[in-house]
Every structure is written in C-alpha cells, then in structure tokens.
Amino acid sequence: VSIVVPARNNIPIVNWAARTLYPELLEAGCKIYESPPPFDHSKLFVIDGIWSFVGSTNWDPRSLRLNFEFNLACHDRALARVLTAEFERKLAISDEITTAILRETSLPIRLRNGIARLLIPLL
To answer: What pTM, to 2 d.p., does this model score?
Structure first.
C-alpha cells in the first residue's frame, strides 16, 4: 500500500496529528509519501488494478457522519490503469517518509504533534 498525502495541509493541526499515525502505518508495511503544494483535497484508491474510488470524502468517522461529500466507485480495468498512472505521476514528485526521517523529528515537534493527535476525533 502506497499513501500520498499533502506535505502541507490547509489546516496545519491536521498535518501535525496525521504525522503521529505514520509509524503505525510504516510498521504495517505501508509506504508514505508527502506531495508538494498546491494542496490537493482529492482522494484516490486503486485496488487490484480494477477497483477505483475517486472523490473528496475524508475517510474518518466524523467526516463520514457529518460531511456531504461525493465519491465515485468504479469496476473498470481501463479506468484503473489511467488512475494508477496519475497516482504514479503524483508519487514521482513526492517525498517518501521513512522511519529514519521520523526519528529525526525534534522533541518539541513530537510533543506538538502528540497533543494534536488527542484532537483527531474532532478534526
């Protein structure tokens, strides 16, 4: 699983909280990349080269319950190829975040991010 997220969010505290989730994802074998500006709010999943999900929904309980967003689910190999190519273009300009990079994070930043993590249910 490869995940691309914006390097900078339109709401900084969301970035701070999200970074606290990276170690668990990396441990599970995910690869995480941060994309450069401009901020991209779109969501894209391509699964097994045939299933595609495209939309604007944030995939967290609060957003799924409260927000009115739009998503499209498709079962089409040709579309999945096109979307995979788009994802790979985005991946090519993004920076991979590794465990080593996270270890370099200073204590004040880790504390700030940890406090932000407490607010995840509200973000």
So the answer is: 0.85
